[in-house]
Specification:
By secondary structure, the protein is mostly beta strands. It is 0% helix and 52% strand. It is built from no helices and eleven strands. Strand 7 and strand 8 form a beta hairpin.
């Protein structure tokens, strides 16, 4: 089992930056690929991006490519989502998730979830 707790959400303005954190406990953090998802009001939860267990491989949704950066510090059991040039359409609840394997899986392969943190971008 993996327990995940997100933090860092808040209300920001268009063009601002924000960094989210996800602290993991339970299973050895360095063994799991991790990911970020988000859910906008009235929409399904969607993939933001992922990072391999070692941190050397990342991928991103087209909508955030070039603006968002995922990183991790395995010594702190923490994953980060640096969000720059925020837009109103980035508004939503952001969730971190953990996979069972060290490589980034398909979105259905993420098995453990945090409770989410709200990000609101005003235009």
């Amino acid at each position: 089992q993996v327990q995940l707790v997100e933090s860092g959400g808040g209300l920001v303005q268009h063009g601002d930056s924000l960094r989210l954190s996800c602290v993991a406990s339970g299973r050895a953090f360095g063994r799991n690929a991790m990911g970020w998802f988000r859910q906008a009001p009235g929409k399904e939860r969607g993939y933001v991006g992922g990072i391999s267990a070692s941190g050397d491989i990342t991928n991103y949704a087209d909508s955030v490519e070039g603006r968002f950066t995922i990183s991790r510090d395995n010594s702190k059991s923490t994953m980060y989502l640096q969000m720059n040039s925020l837009k109103a359409e980035d508004t939503g609840v952001y969730y971190c998730a953990a996979a069972l394997n060290p490589w980034i899986p398909a979105t259905s392969g993420f098995r453990f979830w945090g409770q989410g943190t709200q990000v609101t971008v005003s235009s």
